[in-house]
Amino acid sequence: MSMSRVCHDLTVSALFVTLRPSLLAVGEDACIVERLFSSSLVVVVGLSHPHKLRVYHFKKGTEICNYSYLTKILNVKLNRQRLIVVLEDSLCIHTIKDMKVIHTITETPPNPAGICGFSMSAERSYLAYPGSSQVGEVQIFDTVNLQSVTMIQAHDGRLAALAFTDDGTKLATASSKGTVIRVFQSSDGSKLFEFRRGVKRYVEINCLAFSPDGVYLCASSNTETVHIFKLELQKEKHDEESQGWMGYFSKALATPASYLPSQVTDVFTQGRSFAMAHLQKPGQRNICAIVLMQRIPRLVVVTADAFVHIYNINPVEGGQCVLIKQHNLLKMDEEESDPAADVECQASGLAGTGPAKLTSVEEPPREEQVDKTSSAGVEKQPYLLNRDDSNDDDDDRPPDQFSSLDQQ
What is the sign, positive or negative, of the torsion defined by CA atoms of 270, 274, 277, 278? Predict the structure, then answer.
């Protein structure tokens, strides 16, 4: 299984196992896989045809349609209303209903990493993408009303990662230095929080992800540590820290008499990680998410070797997260009885299940004939689009309840 590009969906490996027979039938391996929440709609980009986007009904194992683009597809995002295809110098916006291209954002700065963030909210279907290849400028675009929302000067260095909260009200950003993570109001670009991931070394941020309720933000990198930050109001933090040495320094630095350089005062005023987890194999590409399992927050990390790591989070004390489960996605067919394979992971950045527990509502038999092509494509191919292919679950966002997880 190719893991040359890790998508921002923690079920990439599980869905790939399910779709692999269909992909092998056309002589292809996958490099990008994205699923529309817990529906049967899955989009795939193959290694041998990186210019082509294929849309699958993974439950039936059939291809619904495909589109070809003039340049390599670098990233794909989707929600209930829109599908976003990220190219190096443009972004194509499709409607989910008929896959028609309704808008193309052209002449964007070079974005070879395909960096973007996309909100799953129906009310705020916002798209965030780099506005510069040199500095950390973020452009936020409303994909429903097809208009610009705001521009944010987030970092001095170029962007490395972007992530929205589930409701689309907040946007997290990280730069290529990887030392500072900021959270902004998506509607006007005002800065809400600033966290320091580290001081001594620059790192490559692999993933940013909010918890479903937007209270926690996790960040993974090419180091051995995954950081979890808690979005607390300054008053709440002040009450907790006022008795400690950090409270003393905060008061001292807030006085006009402080003559310390701004770089020094920033170190003391920026928020620190609420909790952290240590990976056994640092240096691997990875993605992370915070989900709810039996109403308890868990940190889930998937590494490039196709292992799922599940950590316990202490919601009161934070601190060191405890590893409670590991699972090899490449052996799912052999270990269908493993409790980890039975966990229905459907949350921000985590949607879907393994082949033994894939759940979706049976579609009604009616279908409609659609003959559409992408304005960015070179192929014209009619396809059958079932009205309920993208609506297998009954909610506008993934449910935050999960199946049981045996703790060992």
Answer: positive
